[in-house]
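Before relying on records like the one below, remember that each one covers exactly one chain. Contacts with other chains, cofactors or solvent are not represented anywhere in the record.
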Amino acid sequence: MPSKAPKTFHLVSLGCSKNTVDSDSMAQLLGNAGFRPVANPNQAGVLLVNTCGFIGPARDESYRVLNELAAHKRGGQLLIAAGCLTQRYGMEVAQRVPGLDGILGTRRWMDIVDVVTQLRRAKHPEPLYHLPTEAITVGTDEHEALRVSVQGASAYIKIADGCRRPCAFCAIPLIKGTAVSRPVDAILAEARALRDLGVRELILIAQDSTDYGHDLGMKEGLSTLLEELVRAVPDVDWVRIMYAFPGYVTDRMIETMATHKQLIPYLDMPLQHAHPMTLRRMRRPANMDWVRETLAKMRTAMPDLSLRTTFIVGYPGETDEEFQTLLDFVQETRFDRVGAFQFSFEPGTTSEPLGDPVPAEVKQARYEQLMELQQPISMEKNQAFVGKTLEVLVEGQGKVEGSGEPISIGRSYRDAPEIDGVVLIEGDVPAGEMVPVRITGAMAYDLVGTVGWGNQGVIGLEALGVK
């Protein structure tokens, strides 16, 4: 690439919040090296796509974005594919995306500047592959990159990467490698830096947050980290925990969450299914008695607990009886939030010998039936908050369709960014503010309210579809 190429980059981040942290970390490193981000790909010297390759639809989106950028790529521009798709399908990606200059995997995202430098130093007739097998994680001292992604007044902190669980359907260990925890001191330093930036919510993420510290020789590593965290940043309003693994939510973790107000009573624990035989085929924890007992302990310790989970429908061998057990469990347990996915066949996983025998139309029907069952449960859960006051973190503003009246959009402790609901607030409240909101209406997934402790009126509920 000619030396006169601009030191600018255009970055597209696909996939989950864990991927977003990697994207923001690469952007920090490029910025430290003198590169400037630009929104227009035509103005960029470097085009960087941090791909997702977890399941088929995500791979399709990654290829679409890469090929669109490749089709409009100008002379002198570099196109680099990074992330999950490239880590797992490196050579195939190069074959399917003509004009690709570099391939960088998930395990060494911190080498992005080296890859760009190598590509700019000399012309490469073939894409430059940078796919080391060693999975490492770093703190701020090594590479001057915070392992965080700031989203307004909230921020994700990645506490670990990779996974050592044996789940048969999951390609994450193939993509990320085994679990590697980050040092406690590095995480605390980042939490303090985010606090100093005015961040009000810290969201701890990993493929399996409850496995944090195992590779560091820590027992109850997540509980230890949480206790250190609340001491380090007592003035951060909320600390949210994502992606707990069944069987590893311990009594100490429950007590820690219940004891510290900052640790909000919210937990995302993907269960994947409720029938023991299905779970055994998934190579997942199959002791549903433990699940019920643990959920009961959590709800006793934290009466305001908001529980989110995820299920897979159409897993190989899932019978009508097994699916009915899942429906019965959802009806019995009454989760606040439920996400569902149709099984995606992934070559190379340990479920590959099972094939993909459940017909697509059966998967779709089961998915729809599960979500239809959950919707009135979600509505009932939301309606229970009408007349109560919730703290809400405001994220932005909008207008009521039709009347044009201003509304503000925020989240309560019950709502993780992007995957859960929102709270719609009458009037214009500045983003980043934490305000008391009296809930005046409920929808299946969202709430509506007014600022303050009293009943100050109900915003255009009919226009919003609220009953």
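Residues 454-467 have pLDDT under 50 and may be disordered.
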